[in-house]
Amino acid sequence: MWAMVGGWVRTLIVIVLIGNLVDIVMPKGDLRRYAGLVVGLVILAVMIRPLSSAVGYVNRDHPVSAFSWVSRGPSLTGAIASEERHQAEAMVQTVPGVRACAIRSLSGSSVRVLVNVAPRTSRKLVRTMAQQAVSLTMGRGVRVAQLQMLSAKTS
Amino acid sequence: MKTMRLGLGAATIGLFLCLRTGLAKAQGVGPTIRNQLQTLNDHGLNQALNQLVAGPHPVQLPSVGQVVNDLIQRKNPFDPNALLQALERAALGDFNQMARVLGILFILAVLAALLERLAETSDIPEVVRIARWVVLSAFITVGLRSFTSAVHLVHHMVSSLVGLMESMIPTVIVLMAGSGALTSAGIFHPLMLATINLTAVLTKNWVLPAMMLATVVELVSHWLPRFSLNSLAALFRQIGLTLLGGLMTVFLGVMAVEGAAASVADGVLLRSSKFVMGSFVPVIGKAVSDAMEAVLGSSMLLKNAVSLVGALAIIVLVVFPLLKLMVMMFLYRVAAAATEPLAVEGMVKSLNAMATAIGWLVAIAGAVALMFFLIVTVVLSASNGAVP
Fold first, then answer.
1. What is the interface pTM, i.e. ipTM, of the complex?
2. How many separate domains does chain B show?
3. A80 and A55, same structural domain?
4. In chain A, N or C terminus with fewer CB closer than 10 Å?
5. Cα angle vertex B170, ends B165, B171, to 5°?
6. Distance (Å, rounded) from C-alpha B386 to C-alpha B303?
7. For residue B57, what is the DSSP state?
8. Is the predicted pLDDT of residue B17 greater than 70, yes or no?
9. A65 lies in a domain?
C-alpha cells in the first residue's frame, strides 16, 4: 500500500522538479505562461491517475451491487431451505425405529427421503410421518417423491 | 448460583496456593511474599527489562525482588537522581551531535545567501538561481536525513515498547490470577495483547509512513516553490493524525469499560469465595480463609511490584528518544531564527517545517507511550479491586 503511494509521490516529485527546471530555463514571455499551464495539467493528470484507475476498475470489472462485499456463502433463501430440511429430518428421526434420516431436494417441489431404520419398521408409518414433516416445515405443496429405507446394521 | 460456583473455584485456587506456600496464617505478609517470590520466575522478565533499557545511557532498573523488599521496608525502590543524571548526559550528547548537523546547515545557508546577493547583481541571473537551488537541495537532503533518523528512532522505540509489554504480560497475568482477580486475568490477557499489537502495527505501518511522506512532500514544496504540493502534504498529515486520534479514542474507551467491569466481577467473586470458605468448610474453614487472604494479598503486592517495574521501564525507555527529539526540534527552531536575517527564500520555511514535523513525531511517540503506560496502570488499578 505505502509502496504504491510512495511510487506515486515519487513520480509527482519528479514532474514538479522538471516543471521547476523548465520554469527556470524558459525565456520570459507568452511561451513561459503556457508552459506553466501545461506542467500544471500534467501534475493534475498524474495526481488523479490512481483515483481514475480505481473508478475504472470498479466500473469495468466489478460492477457495484449492494452488499456484494458482504455475502459470502449460501444466500438467505438457501440458508432457510437448508434449515427447513434439517427440521424435517429431525422430525422424521423422532419416529420409533428410525436411526438416521437425510432429505434431499429434487427438482420441482418434491423431495427424496433416505432413512436408516431398525428391522421390521413399518414403511407406511415412515412414509406418512415423512410426508407430514415435510409439508409442515417446507410448505404444503412439497411431497415425498422417493423414500429409500435401509436397515443396515450399524453397530 | 454461578457466582457461587465461581467462588468455589476461586476458593480451590486459594487453597492450592496456601498449600504451596505453606499455611501462612499469623506469619504476616513478609515470609509469605518471600516464599512466593522464590517460586515466581522473574529472571526472564528482569533480563528482558535490562536488555531493553540498556542503551548508550544505561539506567539500572530495580528487579522485582528488590522492589518488593524495599516496599516491605518502606523504602523508595527507585532513585530518580540516577535517571536525572543520565538524562543530563544524554541531553548534552544529543546537543553535541545535532550541533554538527546545524553547522553544516549554517554553512549552506551562508552560501545560499551569497548566491542570492550575486543573483541580484549578475547579468545572467538564471545560472546563479540554479546554483542557489542546488545549494538548497543539499540543505534539504541534510534535513531529510536527520528527519529519517528521527523516524527510525520512534520506530525503534515502539518496537522496544512492544517487546517490553510482551515480556511483562505473562508474569502480571499469572500474579493477577493468583491474587484472585480471575475475571480480570481472563479479560485483560487477550485485550492487552490485541491492543498492544494493534497500536504498534498501526503506528509503525500507517502513521509513521504517512508523516514521513507528508514531511518529504512539504520540504520538496519549499525546495520547488513554482509548482508546490503543500496540500498533498497536508492530506498525508491529516491521514496519519486521524488514524492516531481514532486509535487513541477507541483504546481509552475499551480500557475504561473493561477495567470497571472486570474489577466489579472480581470483587464479587472473591468475597463470595471467602464467605464459602469461612462458613461451609467446618473447623479449619476460618483459618484457611484467613490464610487465603494473606496469600492473595501478597500475590497482589507482587503483581503491583511487577507493574511498578514495568511502568518504570516504560518511562526509562521513552524518555531518552523523546528528549532527543525535543533537542532536535529546539535546534531546528534556533536555526530558523538565526537564518531568517539572511533572507534566503525557502530556507527558513523548510527549517520551520522540519521543526514542526519533529514536533508531530514527539506527539506520536508520546501518545503511544501514554497508551502503553495507561495499559499498565489501568490493569494495575482494575485488578486491585478484588482483594478487600
1. 0.70
2. 1
3. no
4. C
5. 95
6. 13
7. S
8. no
9. no
Burial of B112 (C-beta count, 10 Å sphere; 0-12/13-18/19+): buried
Alpha carbon distances (Å) from A88 to A92, A97, A107, A108, B112? 6, 16, 18, 18, 88
Question: Which residue from B342, B322, B340 is spatially nearest to B332, judged by alpha carbons?
Answer: B340
Over residues B2-30, the mean pLDDT reads: 50
* pLDDT band, residue B336 (cuts 50/70/90): very high
Query: Mean pLDDT across chain B, nearest whole number?
Result: 80
> Quick check: A40 contacting B, CB < 8 Å?
yes
Determine the Cα–Cα distance for residues B305 and B259; give it in Å rounded to an integer.
Answer: 19
CA–CA distance, A34 with B301 (Å, rounded to integer): 76
Q: What range defines the domain where residue B254 resides?
A: 2-54+62-384
- Please indicate whether, in this complex, the C-beta atoms of B227 and A9 are within 8 angstroms of each other: no
Q: Which residue has the cell 410426508?
A: A131
pLDDT band, residue B155 (cuts 50/70/90): very high
DSSP B26: T
- Residue with grid cell 512492544, as numbered in its chain: B162
Position A93 in a domain: yes
Q: Hey, is the C-beta of A49 within 8 angstroms of any chain B C-beta?
A: no
Interface test with A, best of B213, B227, B228 (most A CBs within 10 A): B227
Statement to judge: residues A145 and A88 lie in one domain: yes
- Domain assignment present for A67: no
Domain that holds residue A135: 76-150
Q: Which residues contact B304 (CB under 8 A, 6 or more apart)?
A: B380, B384
